[in-house]
Design a protein that fits this description.
The complex is a heterodimer of chains A (308) and B (328).
Chain A lengths: L13 H10 L2 H18 L1 H8 L30 H37 L1 H16 L2 H9 L10 H5 L3 H14 L1 H15 L2 H8 L4 H9 L4 H24 L11 H8 L8 H28 L7
Helix pairs in contact in A: 1-14, 2-4, 2-14, 3-4, 4-5, 4-8, 4-9, 4-12, 4-14, 6-8, 9-12, 10-11, 12-13, 12-14, 13-14
Chain B lengths: L10 E12 L2 E13 L4 E5 L6 H9 L7 E9 L2 E2 L5 H7 L4 E4 L13 H10 L6 H14 L5 H4 L9 H13 L5 E5 L7 H18 L2 E6 L2 H7 L2 E6 L2 E7 H6 L4 H8 L49 E2 L5 E2 L8
Parallel strand pairs in B: 3-8, 3-9, 6-7, 7-8
Antiparallel strand pairs in B: 1-2, 1-4, 4-5, 9-10, 10-12, 11-12
Helix pairs in contact in B: 3-4, 3-6, 4-6, 6-7
The chains are: A mainly alpha (308), B alpha/beta (328).
Chain lengths: 308, 328
């Protein structure tokens, strides 16, 4: 395609350029729409509850496995609870855990990666071996053990440990503790190259201390791999949460999450397949959408990336 | 060298040595370099790539790249010993008492911040001041380094301004805290000739106004002759000739200096080939015995290969490290 050379417009801001390149990535754009819709629906769960006049956790054994109807658009589950409302509440938990744990692991990974990349030498070797170690740990047994830790034994007051929300926080902490390694490696690599650029030396020559150099001068230059890796990891975290909840170690019933809804439905896969289908499909859609979103962001943040 | 009652030089370096341990042995990047720069004076340091001139500068800043380290030497700024200070103390001195500007104005500015924000940051590093104050100070500095329309340029990113303006912005950053000593490491090498002249003029102007000492590093003798009061010629990590600028250019004594001066192109000399210095800078791990220049020197004989010649005074203030210098 040959274009007539036009007089160059004033340079656009970084954000506008980013948005334009992102919009070129159709799948990513569609994924963003899907994710926003899911998030909005999840946020509207109490409204749906009120509209339908049902409650997410109210058991009614007289209407078990009800087919879709006006009162229960998706039907009911094995305890007669409204499936749609439970899916929406489950979405809240799954998305919240996914995003919170991805952010927490991004923070841990960024700090470790910056320290390792900036200081180098022994600290780098130590932190990177720690990273390798965490990667090498057999994930599932470790998660199972961590999920089984009795919180009162590590000094939490008993009433706090019994709080139903605690399983949610516990999930976030456990997942963050094992999934920071990708970000740490990416940030270390980017820091190693940025550290050698002359502006870092120039900042040091102006009297900036190491913390300031890392936070103010290096971090903004390594932020794009962090954003991409974090977006991609939201999908993984949601999967991890489903696996743990499926094993009965994650979010504890009666709180709904997509993972534990799958668990509840595992013996009913032949008699009531819709109970398996919906949470499974939503997990699938969310994970795929986060992966496309991450790809799109990667392309948009890196102008040198080849456009497919 | 310091006489009692006389103000100490702005920067004094004594017997500086920098070593880089490598797998094949220790590389002596700087081998016993001493010099002093008075207030308001400029020392030009000239030498080929790898002669140790940049490492000398980074050692003074306390910013030697790993695994390099100072194995000997004392560095005084305004009479205060700064070598051997801890990292925190050194951070306070950098920018505040010694500033530095670099060769590549493109990479020496952070691409993600506006030019003005970076100058404001440099200004506020050693002060307790608000954002508005820092902005005003940065605008004044931009104006001081002759960047037109400072209030518009303030929000420009480094990629949006020209190389010359970037170097001016770099100078503004280095001057933000009015340091006593400014180290300029090849500040004009990446610029074209007319811009070079403007930057040198700017540096001289600011120097006469603020009275700071400048250590000006270059491989370009022409540039050095324009700016320096004294010149130190470095070769293989040592100063081989050290003299006031006019004397060095009029009557160079070291064969290396002479060869360097002979390689400066002259206007009007069309019909002659430009002389070149034969051979290459020796590898730091394979220095010839004795004088490091001996294998390229037209005057070298067996005596030259016996011992490393020391920098010795030859008449007032002209020092040379060559045993043949007196004979010529």
């Amino acid at each position: 395609m040959t274009d007539i050379v036009r007089p160059t417009a004033p340079p656009d801001g970084m954000l506008i350029l980013f948005a334009r390149r992102f919009a070129d990535h159709r799948l990513a754009l569609a994924s963003l729409v899907v994710l926003l819709a899911l998030a909005l629906l999840a946020a509207a769960a109490p409204a749906a509850e009120w509209l339908l006049g049902v409650s997410a956790n109210s058991v009614n054994l007289t209407i078990r496995f009800a087919p879709p109807s006006l009162a229960h658009p998706f039907g009911t589950d094995e305890l007669g609870r409204d499936l749609l409302v439970r899916l929406l509440y489950g979405g809240r938990i799954s998305l919240a855990v996914g995003i919170a744990a991805a952010l927490a692991s991004a923070v841990i990974g960024t700090i470790i990666g910056l320290l390792a990349g900036y200081y180098g030498g022994k600290l780098d070797a130590l932190l990177m071996r720690l990273t390798d170690g965490v990667i090498a740990l057999p994930l599932l047994p470790l998660l199972i053990v961590l999920a089984a830790v009795d919180l009162t034994k590590i000094g939490l007051p008993a009433e706090l440990a019994r709080d139903p929300d605690v399983s949610l926080y516990r999930m976030v902490v456990i997942i963050a503790l094992v999934s920071w390694t990708t970000v740490a490696r990416l940030v270390r690599g980017a820091t190693l190259s940025v550290r050698e650029r002359e502006f870092v030396l120039a900042a040091a020559a102006c009297g900036a201390g190491p913390l300031r150099i890392m936070a103010v001068h290096i971090l903004p230059n390594v932020v794009s791999p962090i954003i991409v890796a974090t977006t991609l990891s939201v999908g993984n975290v949601i999967l991890l949460e489903s696996v743990l909840s499926f094993l009965g170690l994650g979010i504890q019933p009666p709180i709904a999450s997509w993972g534990n809804m799958l668990t509840g439905a595992q013996e009913l896969i032949w008699s009531a397949p819709q109970l398996v289908f919906w949470p499974g499909a939503l997990i699938f859609a969310t994970v795929i959408a986060f992966n496309f979103l991450g790809d799109g962001m990667q392309d948009a943040l890196d102008p040198r990336a080849i456009t497919r | 060298m310091i006489n009692a009652g006389v103000a100490p030089p702005a920067l004094e370096v004594e017997d500086l040595a920098v070593v880089f341990p490598t797998r094949r042995g220790d590389v002596l990047a700087v081998a016993g370099v001493s010099y002093a720069i008075g207030r308001g004076r400029t020392l030009g340091i000239v030498g080929e790539s790898g002669s140790g001139k940049s490492m000398t500068a980074l050692a003074v800043m306390g910013l030697l790249p790993a695994p390099g380290r100072m194995t000997s030497g004392r560095i005084h700024v305004g009479g205060d010993l700064v070598s051997g200070l801890g990292e925190d103390d050194m951070t306070r001195i950098r920018g505040e008492r010694i500033g530095m500007i670099f060769q590549e104005p493109m990479t020496a500015l952070n691409p993600v911040f506006s030019v003005g924000a970076q100058i404001a940051e440099a200004w506020s590093l050693h002060r307790k001041a608000g954002r508005a104050e820092a902005r005003d100070a940065a605008l004044a500095l931009l104006d001081r380094v002759r960047i037109p329309e400072p209030s518009r340029r303030y929000d420009d990113y480094p990629h949006q301004i020209s190389g010359g303006q970037r170097q001016r912005a770099m100078i503004a950053m280095a001057l933000a805290c009015k340091p006593e000593v400014l180290i300029a490491d090849e500040p004009t090498t990446a610029l074209d000739v007319t811009i070079q002249a403007q930057i040198i003029e700017l540096l001289l102007e600011i120097q006469s106004e603020m009275g700071m000492a400048i250590q000006f590093i270059s491989h370009n003798l022409g540039v050095i002759s324009e700016i320096a009061d004294d010149v130190a010629v470095m070769y293989a990590g040592r100063i081989v000739e050290y003299a006031p600028s006019s004397r060095l250019f009029e009557s160079p004594r070291h064969p290396y200096t002479r060869a360097l001066i002979a390689t400066i192109p002259r206007v009007g000399a069309h019909d002659t080939r430009l002389p070149a210095i034969g051979g290459q800078v020796p590898h730091p791990l394979a220095l010839p015995p004795g004088c490091p220049f001996s294998d390229r020197c037209p005057l070298a004989d067996d005596d030259c290969r016996k011992a490393v010649p020391q920098l010795t005074t030859q008449g007032d203030a002209h020092r040379v490290a060559c045993i043949k210098a007196e004979a010529t």
